[in-house]
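A further point concerns the way the authors explain their paired sequence and structure data. Each protein is reduced to its one-letter sequence and a matching series of backbone shape codes. An entry of this sort, consisting of the sequence and the corresponding backbone structure tokens, reads as follows:
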Amino acid sequence: MRHVEGAPVEVSEEGLPEWLGPVVRAVRTVAPRQLSSFLPPADGRGRQSAVLILFGEGPRGPELLLMERAGSLRSHAGQPSFPGGALDPEDGDPQGDGPLRAALREAEEETGLDPAGVQIFGVLPKLYIPVSSFVVTPVLGWWRKPSPVDAVDPAETARVFTVPVVDLTDPAHRATAVHPSGHAGPAFLVESALVWGFTAGVIDRLLHFAGWERPWDREKRVPLDWRA
């Protein structure tokens, strides 16, 4: 069964694997300021969007689904990210389940994911990406019935891949990314990719509040070139 446009999107914690318990508990209690210092403008400015943070289970245990944006895009070119994008009018109320519907729709459009196999189990507070003026709702899902995924449109997506959580928590794969502007933030060197920016920040906070984080060298720095 495919995702039906306009149909209600259920949020359920029922039947989740035991290892997701720490993430579920973190989602219930985390406050916006604990996730990021960049929060949506009080005056309502910003373009409403959503991302799908999809947990699955692979050969090496729990894993996350990520994609790498095409290098030709004007915004965030070549950057690894969660599937997602701006809300469309048909997604519905941005303050209701519109972001949930958008996260599933965008994931399907970008990766070929079958939304029918995804169980939404939580939603994080809305965050803000100042450089693109996106107000982002992170939607968390359990890949209950995995489906084949790949880059649907090479003009938008360079590749789609999964990253084992054990690699994300490995101190050898962690670093601090330094932007030419001077901004520094968490980064992950995994699957031949440097995950940084908004995506890395959310992963970093999820690992921390789920109790999965391992001590790592925050002085290990990776410079981002001028194109970043």
In short: The mean pLDDT is 92. The CA atoms of residues 111 and 150 lie 5 Å apart. The helical segments are 21-29, 32-35, 98-111, 165-168, 197-209. The two ends are 39 Å apart (CA to CA).
